[in-house]
Design a protein that fits this description.
- It is a single chain.
- The chain is mostly helical.
- The chain contains 7 helices and no strands.
- Helix 2 (31-60) packs antiparallel against helix 3 (65-74), helix 2 (31-60) runs antiparallel to helix 7 (139-159) and helix 5 packs antiparallel against helix 7 (139-159).
- The longest helix is centred in the N-terminal third of the chain and has 30 residues, at 31-60.
Length: 160
C-alpha cells in the first residue's frame, strides 16, 4: 500500500489528517525524532478534539435532553486528566535537548504511560470510539499511537 493510500485510509476511517506530507526524521532520541513525535502528538490531539466536538454536535442535535446534557458536560473530560500535565511536560522538554530530557523526561514518560493505560482501560473512551451515532471517533487508536511515539522518542533520548 502506498504512503498516499495509507494517508487516505487514515483520513477516511479514523479521521486522522497529517499536517504535512514531507518526510520527517523518525530516529527515536534524535532531535528530529523528538520533533516528529511531538508534531504527531499535536496532530493526533487536534484530530481527537475535532472528533469529540463532532460527537458533541450530534448529541446536541438529538432533541434528547439526556444526550444534550452528556454533550455539554460528559465529554469534556473524556481523555482523562492527562492533557494539561502532558502539555506542561512538553513545554518543559522544549526541543528535547539532553539537559531538558534529563530534567523533564522521566516525568513526561510517566505521564505518557499513565495516559496510555487510561486510554486502554477507560470505558468512556471505548463507548465514544464505538458510538452508535455514525460519528467517527478513534480516541484510543489516534492518541495511543502518538503517545507511543512520544514515549519511544523520550526513552531513547533518556538513554543518550
Amino acid at each position: 500500500m502506498s504512503a498516499s493510500a495509507k494517508s487516505e485510509w487514515l483520513q477516511r476511517v479514523l479521521g486522522f489528517t497529517f499536517r504535512s506530507t514531507r518526510p520527517v526524521a523518525t530516529k527515536p532520541g534524535a532531535a528530529g525524532g523528538w520533533q516528529a513525535a511531538r508534531t504527531a502528538w499535536e496532530a493526533a490531539s487536534g484530530t481527537v478534539d475535532g472528533q469529540i466536538a463532532a460527537l458533541q454536535a450530534v448529541l446536541r442535535r438529538s432533541n434528547d435532553d439526556t444526550l444534550a446534557e452528556i454533550a455539554e458536560f460528559g465529554l469534556n473530560g473524556i481523555t482523562g486528566n492527562y492533557k494539561v500535565p502532558l502539555a506542561a511536560a512538553l513545554v518543559e522538554l522544549g526541543a528535547g535537548g539532553p539537559a531538558a530530557m534529563k530534567k523533564a523526561g522521566p516525568k513526561a514518560v510517566k505521564i505518557i504511560n499513565d495516559y496510555r493505560a487510561y486510554l486502554e482501560t477507560s470505558e468512556k473512551v471505548q463507548v465514544c470510539d464505538a458510538n452508535p451515532f455514525g460519528t467517527p471517533v478513534s480516541i484510543r487508536a489516534t492518541l495511543g499511537g502518538a503517545l507511543a511515539e512520544l514515549a519511544a522518542s523520550l526513552e531513547a533520548g533518556l538513554r543518550r
